[in-house]
Amino acid sequence: MLRNIISERQEELPVSTIGKFLKIAAESKDIISLGPGEPDFDSPPHIIEAAKKHLDERYTHYSPPGGRYGFKEAIIKKLKKENGISVGHENIIVTTGSTEAILLALMCTVDPGEGVLIPDPGFLAYKPSVEILNGMPLCVPLYEKNNFEIDVEKMEKVIIPEKTRALIMCTPSNPTGTVFSKKALEEIADFAREHDLLVISDEAYEKLVYDDARHISIGSLNGMENYVMTLHSFSKTYAMAGFRVGYAAGPEEIVKAMTKLHIFTTLCAPTISQVTAMDALKGDQKCVETMRREYDRRRRMIVKRLNEIPGFSCTTPKGAFYAFPNVKSFGMKSLAFSEWILKNAKVAVLPGTEFGKFGEGYIRLSYATAYDLIEKALDRIENAVKKLKK
Ligand SMILES: Cc1ncc(COP(=O)(O)O)c(C=O)c1O
Predict the structure, then answer these.
(1) I need a labelling partner for 167 at 20 to 30 A (CA). Which of 2, 86, 103, 386 fits?
(2) Beta strands 363-366 and 322-323: pairing type?
(3) β-pairing, 246-249 with 228-233?
C-alpha cells in the first residue's frame, strides 16, 4: 500500500455535500432530488440523430487542439449575432465543457499566491479551481438586498492591489438565478480595467432568462475585448451535458496559452461532440425555447409555492434553473436544515453554504426536474416544516 500518496493540495480541497446528497438521493427511490445542476431533458432528438450520423461518418479521431475549423466558424457567427462579440479563430478555444475552460483560463493567468476575485455564493467549482493552482480566492460577498449582484464597493474591500489577476463572474448566476443588469456589468468593467484584471465571464446559462431579463455579455461592452474571457457551454442550452463541450473566447495571447495547456490536459474536446454541437448551433433553435418555457413554468410555480410556505422567503430568479430561498427564520444552519429536509421531507436540496460562506441562511432548489415532481417535493416540504413552525 502506498503511503502519503495523496498530495496536500488535493487533501485540502473541500469534500462537496453535493456528492453526498446526490448519492443518497440516487440510492433511495423515495427521495425526490431538487439537487441536480443539469437539465432533466435528454438532448433534443435532432441533436441525437446528428450524433448518430456523425458516428456513422466515423468522426472518431482527434481534432485540432483549439477546435475544429467549421465549428469555430459557427461559434464566431453565433458570438457576433447573439452576444455582440466580434472575434476571429485566434480568439477561440473549444474545451471539454466550460469546466475545463475555467481551469485553463486560471492556469494561464494566475501564479501561486496571486488573488482571484470570486462571487460568494458562486458556482462551486470556482474556489477549488483557484486553490488547485495555489492561488488565493478572494470572496466577494453577494447580498440578497442587492439582488445578489456583484457590488464594486465590496470588491474594493477584498482586492489585494497588484496581487490580484482575475475576477470570475457568472450571469445568469448559479446558485442565485440573478441576471446582471447592464449598469452592474458596466461598473464591473470599469473596475476590471482600473485594476488590470481578466474577467472570466461564465455564461453557461445565457439562454435561460425570464420575464424582462436580458442576458448581456460583459465582453460586448466598449473597451472590454482585451479584458474578458467569455465562457459558453452546450450543457444547459442544448441539454448536452454528457457531450462535454464548451468554448472560450477572449484575448489571443491568453487563448494561445490555454491551447498550449489544453494539449497536455485533454488534447482536444471530443470530436463527436464538436461536430454535433456545430449542428446544434446551426440547426433549428426551437428546442432551446421549448426547454426555456418549461423551466419558466416551473420557476413561476416553485417561487409561488415556496413563498406560500411559512418560513420561506424567495426572491424571483430571472435566470438559470435554481430557486435560492432565504430560510433564516427556521433558526438552523443551511446544512442542518438541508439534512433535516432530506430526513423529514425526503427531498434533496443543497445548502447555500455549498456555494460559499455567504450562502449561509439559504438553500438551493433546482427546477431542472419534472413539474409534478417539484410540486410533490414542495408538498412534502410544506408538510414537514409545519412541525418546525408550531
Ligand atoms: C455556472 C456554471 N458554470 C459552468 C458549469 C459547467 O458546465 P459544463 O458542463 O460546460 O462544464 C456549470 C454546471 O453546472 C455551472 O453551473
Answers:
(1) 86
(2) antiparallel
(3) antiparallel
Query: Could you read off the pLDDT of 103-129 as tens digits, one per residue?
Result: 999 999 999 999 999 999 999 999 999
pLDDT at 374 over 80: yes
Copy the grid coordinates of residue 344.
423529514
Written as one letter, the residue type at 201 is S
DSSP 301-354: HHHHHHHHSTT-B-----BTTEE--B-GGG-S-HHHHHHHHHHHT-EE-EEGGG
Nearest to 273 by CA among 300, 311, 303, 233: 233
Contacts of 286 (CB under 8 A, 6+ apart): none
pLDDT value of position 3: 78
Which domains are delineated in the chain?
A: 8-43+287-389 (3.90.1150.10), 45-282 (3.40.640.10)
> What does the CA dihedral 210, 37, 50, 215 come to, rounded to 10 degrees?
30
At 11 the pLDDT is 81
Question: CB under 8 Å, gap of 24 or more: what pairs does 263-268 form?
Answer: 263/65, 265/100, 265/103, 265/104, 266/95, 266/96, 266/100, 267/62, 267/65, 268/62, 268/63, 268/64, 268/65, 268/67, 268/94
Tell me if residue 253 falls in helix, strand or coil: helix
From 123, 142, 238, give the residue whose CB has the most ligand 1 atoms within 8 Å, as the site to mutate: 123
Cell of 213: 431579463
Protein residue with least CA distance to atom 16, ligand 1: 174
CA distance 48 to 5: 42
Ligand 1 in contact with 204 (CB < 6 A)?
yes
Q: What is the pTM of this model?
A: 0.96
Q: Among 75, 100, 202, 205, which residue has the most ligand 1 atoms within 8 Å of its CB, making it the best to mutate?
A: 202
Which DSSP symbol is given to 136?
E
At residue 389, does pLDDT exceed 70?
no
